[in-house]
Amino acid sequence: MRRMRLTREFRDQYIQHEMRTHGRKNGFVTVGQEARLSKWLPRIGLPKDKRLADADLPAAAPLVMEIGFGNGDFLVHLAATHPDWLLVGVEIYLPGVAKAVCRMDDAGFIERCRITQLPAQFVLEHQVDEAQLDGIFINHPDPWPKVRHHKRRIIQKAFAKLMVTRLKPGGFIKLATDKPDLAEWMRDILDATPGLTNVAGVGGFIERDEDRPHTKFEERGIKEGRISQFLHYVKA
Predict the structure, then answer these.
(1) Which of the residue ranges 31-35, 79-83, 101-105 would you say has the lowest mean pLDDT?
(2) Where along this sequence does the record place binding of substrate (predicted)?
């Protein structure tokens, strides 16, 4: 199977170069993966000038977002275990988007999903309405371990408050990480965020959901001796 980098034409069309983001943007894909991206992104993609409200989704179905979906393993799991949910995937790494699109397509769930390659902050601010989401998942976000890079971590006070505004009453935020310092960072910020209740109690972590799959990143951590911790918050 021949692997190649995404073509310049494709990257120019789908990567928002004017928006500063941290992390990888380009990488290797197969010819078939790029072809399926070209087929599906015009149908299920959310370009920066399009709102989720204009994405032709049934109004009554629960709307759940995964921020940083990687290669799509968890998105497929959510689609398979929650057939009534509509899913919104947020991921800036296009080769990951390519793999996710192929997996969702192969599983028959692709039309229940909308995908954006824009930064999560922009997506929530400009593409999602207030009280529009039923839930948000953030699995194994980049830990940015160096202190000078902590400002790059996705969970910050302002971002936490923004997520709350986009959730319906009773909506949830679920997070996972195998980095203890990041787990405590996220917990401390979210515990202090008005409008959120920690299901495990202030300072607590929940047990692993029984049906939760081991993602690629979690498997990597297990091999290196790290155990994941899980957080669950509900909007009052």
Answers:
(1) 31-35
(2) 146, 178, 215-218
| First-to-final CA distance of the chain | 50
At 160, the amino acid letter reads A
- Closest C-alpha to 63, from 112, 101, 117: 112
142 is an active site residue: yes
Over the chain, what is the mean pLDDT? 90
Annotated binding residue 210: no
Q: Is 218 annotated as a binding residue?
A: yes
DSSP letters for 183-206: HHHHHHHHHTSTTEEETT-TT--B
CA distance 126 to 121: 8
pTM value?
Answer: 0.90
Selecting among 12, 142, 191, 209, the annotated active-site residue is 142
137 annotated as ligand-binding: no
185 pLDDT more than 50: yes
Question: What does the DSSP 8-state code read for residue 123?
Answer: I
Report d(CA 227, CA 219) in Å as an integer. 10
SS3 content of the chain, % helix, strand, coil (to 5): 40, 20, 40
Looking at the DSSP assignment, which residues form a beta bridge with residue 137?
Answer: 66, 174
Q: What is the DSSP secondary structure assignment for residue 6, as one 8-state letter?
A: P
- CATH code at 3-235: 3.40.50.150
